[in-house]
Amino acid sequence: MNALLMIAFTTGILSGVWGWLAITFGLIGWAGFLGYAICFSSPISGLRGLSITALTCCTGVFWAEVILLGNALTPGWSFMGYLLTGAVAFLMCIQSLYQWLAFIPGTFIGAGATFAAQGNWQLVLLSLLLGLLFGYAMKISGLWLMQKHQLRNLLREQSKAIEIARTTHSRSEGS
């Protein structure tokens, strides 16, 4: 079994669990799926990658709120809103100069989710971060299953080799 198949298996199971949790606790289901996307698209794996993606996701939510609040302060001046959006988008990219904020897609996904949820940043943030944790669990559990499967196959092969060696040794002693 390969890693993709195992990750697909655990993703299917945990996606069902996420769907139930989202409905049961009033979370935003699609935002959780975006959390998976952030996790799966991260070029850095492990807890470091999880931390970077979580931080960039959070900053995206923050930057979206800056844009929304700035636009609310100047409702009749749509041109100011465009300038603010441009300036904040620049900052969203330039923050990647800092190593812990270097995953630009996470920032934009966090901001986009906040816009899509009409500024309900608390619920978006909770749903995104839980989705991110689910995505991490999907990856880790899939890889764990793959390793277990590979280990079982290796032990089976070793057992066969030992049995063949015993049989060969028994035959050579008997002749």
From TrEMBL:
Coiled-coil region(s): none
InterPro entries given in the database record: DUF1097
The keyword RNA-binding is assigned to this record: no
Membrane as UniProt keyword: yes
Pfam families documented for this protein: DUF1097 (PF06496)
Name of protein: DUF1097 domain-containing protein
Transmembrane segments: 20-40, 52-70, 76-93, 123-146
Domain of life the protein comes from: Bacteria
Keywords, ordered alphabetically: Membrane, Transmembrane, Transmembrane helix
Lineage: Bacteria, Pseudomonadati, Pseudomonadota, Gammaproteobacteria, Enterobacterales
